[in-house]
Amino acid sequence: MPGPTASPARVRPARVRVLSVAGTDPTGGAGIHADLKSFAAHGAYGMAVVTALVAQNTHGVRAVHVPDVAFLRAQLDAVSDDVTVDAVKIGMLGTRAVADEVAAWLARTRPPVVVLDPVMVATSGDRLLDRDAEEAVRRLVAHADLVTPNLPELGVLLGEPAARTWRAAVDQARRLARASAVTVLLKGGHLDGDASPDAVVDATTVVELDAVRVATTATHGTGCSLSAAVAALRPRRPDWVTAVREAKAWLTGAIAAGEALAVGSGRGPVDHLHHAATLGAPPFGDEAWDAVADVRAACDDLPFVRALADGTLRTDAFEAYLHQDALYLAAYSRVLARASELAPDGAAQAFWARGASRCLDVEAELHRDRLDRAGRAWGGPASAVTTGYTDHLLAVGARGSYAELTAAVLPCYWLYADIGARVLARAGDLGAHPYGDWIGTYGDPGFAAAADEARRLTDEAAREVGAATRARMLAAFVRSCEHEVAFFDQVDAAAPAPRGPAALAAAGRAAP
Ligand SMILES: Nc1ncnc2c1ncn2[C@@H]1O[C@H](COP(=O)(O)OP(=O)(O)O)[C@@H](O)[C@H]1O
Ligand SMILES: Cc1ncc(COP(=O)(O)O)c(N)n1
After folding, report:
1. Longest dimension (CA), the chain
2. Where are the transmembrane segments (predicted)?
3. Which CATH superfamily groups domain 284-507?
4. Where are the alpha helices (DSSP H) in 121-213?
5. E strand or H helix at 37, and its extent?
6. What is the pLDDT at residue 280?
7. Pocket of ligand 1 (CB under 6 A)
8. What average pLDDT does this structure show over 200-223?
């Protein structure tokens, strides 16, 4: 605990401190009102400096009043003279004088993260930036780390006509990134079709983020909300792609929930707190564990689990199981690598990557120490049960939601550790047990710690999502648990030993 004399500057603040420099929307859907809600929705502490007062609603803009720039400067300095600003989001500027004043303040204060949403025309079609201010906004790009144009705005920033296709827009974004040494978040909201892709583009790379287009009228303030969310996230995320991916997933949910707010009769706002239904909900793990109580109870009575615990399991059945386990682990490793790719921070990324690597070690060990020793080729294909399980995991991974993927991969840690603990307890003296060395691995404290951490990361991911995603997390978790049970149950542990060459080979071998 820091003592009373500790310097406040050395204490990591509880929340990221983010400043919006933007115009107003008295109906709360766009501008600084949207920004402050987006900041709060991402756990940041929000501040706002007003560039322009806008009389607008969900139908459009009625009037704009831009206060004197001396007053803008007074607002900006009031913040920066007192508060450490971790990130700035810049939205509507209105006039050239305002844009230049903001540029001068950025040059003086050099905030660590600057996101520029080059607001020019509202969704309603009303202009929010004077034509003679476009050059000033182009100059402002030099002070930004991330610029978030939609298709028409990107054209203006380059002094070119707006791109008519996504390919042409990505090409324009690449040229802007190179010319201005800035990262570009290109927004595809203005495209036709049933997708609403975005792309994070810098001088050398293009990362496209796919999203389905939600059929809705609730698109007022989407650009404001997205850029504000990215600004709030970036100080505590390793790179732009991670921050944008997370913000975009949240925004898609916010757009889908917007109409239910019943705000206005035109193009309504998004629901920034759409995930608030799950704020304060019990940890995901508690809910999920209760949901699979029956499945867990059924595990102990599986013939395979009983026979493994009491040592009566036939060796050929055990080896068939190990063979499927090795095939499973190879695929599971790829799924964990995908979780690492989608992870929101470095610690989670490293945890899943270590898991992926460990699976391959265990798979190699299985072949070297157990299956190859069995003295026959273990080249058979994955069973339908194994493939069913790995296909489920790969499908969740392909959908690209980190939270759902953590829920899908969790049972392989948690349910497996849970069953293993009970097999271990039932097995008795492992020295005299035919499968003692295998069952002993169930007591590995390293594995128990990894299961705890996987659960913690899943709980953490669940805190960020809305009710719909949480329901999909639960479905993915339950499905994986059912696959775990089917996996143990796929080997016919009760049947007599098979006849033929495999049985002969098995008969000549010592128990593992
Ligand atoms: N109907 C929609 N469904 C899903 N995402 C959308 C929809 N409309 C816009 N978006 C997303 O909202 C964000 C803002 O996009 P866009 O409308 O292009 O910007 P702006 O609001 O600045 O014009 C982008 O991430 C875009 O992909
Ligand atoms: C003050 C202000 N800033 C920005 C927008 C753009 O909003 P949209 O995302 O709907 O184009 C707006 N309507 N009002």
Report:
1. 93
2. none
3. Heme oxygenase-like (1.20.910.10)
4. 134-140, 151-158, 166-180
5. helix 31-41
6. 65
7. 123, 150, 187-190, 196, 198, 211, 213-214, 216, 219, 222-223, 226, 248, 251-252, 255
8. 93
Query: Is the CB of residue 137 less than 8 Å from the CB of residue 91?
Result: no
Per-residue model confidence (pLDDT) at position 375: 58
Region(s) of the chain under CATH 1.20.910.10: 284-507
Q: Which of 188, 223, 268, 466 is flagged as catalytic?
A: 223
Q: Which CATH superfamily is domain 15-150+220-268 in?
A: Ribokinase (3.40.1190.20)
Question: Taking 50 as the threshold, does the pLDDT of residue 511 lie above it?
Answer: no
Which burial class, exposed, middle or buried, applies to 380 when counting CB atoms under 10 A from its CB (0-12, 13-18, 19+)? Answer: exposed
Contacts of 429 (CB under 8 A, 6+ apart): 436
Strand partners, 185: 200
* 280-319: pLDDT as tens digits: 678 899 999 999 999 999 988 899 999 999 999 998 888 8
4: left (phi over 0), alpha (psi -120 to 50) or beta: alpha
Taking the CB of residue 376, how many other CB atoms lie within 10 A of it?
14
Residues of the chain with CATH 3.40.1190.20: 15-150+220-268
Mode of pairing for the β-strands spanning 87-90 and 60-65: unpaired
pLDDT by residue (tens digit) across 433-456? Answer: 999 988 988 888 888 999 999 999
Please give the backbone phi and psi of residue 246, each rounded to the nearest 5 degrees, phi first.
-65, -45
Q: What are phi and psi of 84, to 5 degrees?
A: -75, 120
Contact status, residue 404 vs residue 396, Cβ threshold 8 Å: yes
| Set 51, 95, 148, 222: catalytic member | 222
* 505 contacts 315 by C-beta, under 8 angstroms: no
142 Cα to the center of ligand 1, angstroms: 24
Residue 119 CB–ligand 2 contact under 6 Å: yes
pLDDT at res. 4: 37
Return the SS3 of 504: helix
Residue 393 structure tokens:
């995991």
- β-pairing verdict for 53-57 and 60-65: antiparallel
The CB of 92 under 6 Å from ligand 2? The reply is yes
Identify the residue whose tokens are 């951490």: 453
What ranges in 313-382 are assigned the alpha helix state H? 315-342, 346-365
